[in-house]
Amino acid sequence: MKKLTLVVVFSMLGTMAFAQWGGEQMSDKPSWKERIFVGGGLGGLSFSSYYDYFAINGLVGYKITQKLAGGVQLQYRYTKYKQYTPDFTANDYGVSPFLRFNFYGPFFLHTEYEYLSYEYPISAQGDKVRKGYNSFMAGGGFFQPIGSKAGFYLMALYNFSYQEAGPGDYTPYNTPFIIRAGVTAGF
């Protein structure tokens, strides 16, 4: 469980997202095309003798004003646990509507609601359970432009809905703190 959490945390640190929202300026009367941004990327990748893991995500957003943007992110996570016979595979998927507000220079506030449908093993024979997990996350971050339509971001979020797993239960997160970092690049 702790290894899986470390993989999730470090995969979030290494997320490479491609989207065009950040340092570019909008015109005085922007068209809807100027306001739309899209992206996606690799959310994590890990291979070991214990399990294989990868996650991908995609997003679409809308610049409401120069400082406020909203959108939705879709995600998919695949995990193959090798300690079970036969191997146990889990397919998790989720959706996260978000809002982001640039309040001072490169600093922004970020909030999102995440619904994650996740699977976890309940026996050594490969039996599994699917559950839904709701999270309300908020925090802030820093965006450093690299050119006119690209940049680096770092954000820290707190999961206000986090609860520790009880005996015999499992949650997709084992800490309420989430760190994300990545690079955005415009299309």
Q: What report would you give on this structure?
A:
The protein has 187 residues and is mainly β. It has helices at 2-13, 32-35, and strands at 16-17, 36-47, 51-63, 68-81, 88-104, 107-121, 128-145, 150-159, 177-185. It is elongated.
Number of helices: 2
The side-by-side strand order for the widest beta sheet comes to: 1-2-3-4-5-6-7-8-9
Order of helix and strand elements from N to C terminus: HEHEEEEEEEE
Mean pLDDT equals 78
> Quick one: how many beta strands?
9
Query: What structural class is derived from the secondary structure elements?
Result: mainly beta
Q: How large is the radius of gyration?
A: 18 Å
Helix content: under 10%
Assembly classification? single chain
- Shape by Cα distribution: elongated
Distance between the termini: 38 Å
Task: Note the main sheet.
Answer: 9 strands, antiparallel
Q: What fraction of the residues are assigned to beta strands by DSSP?
A: over 45%
Parts with pLDDT < 50 across at least 5 consecutive residues: 1-21
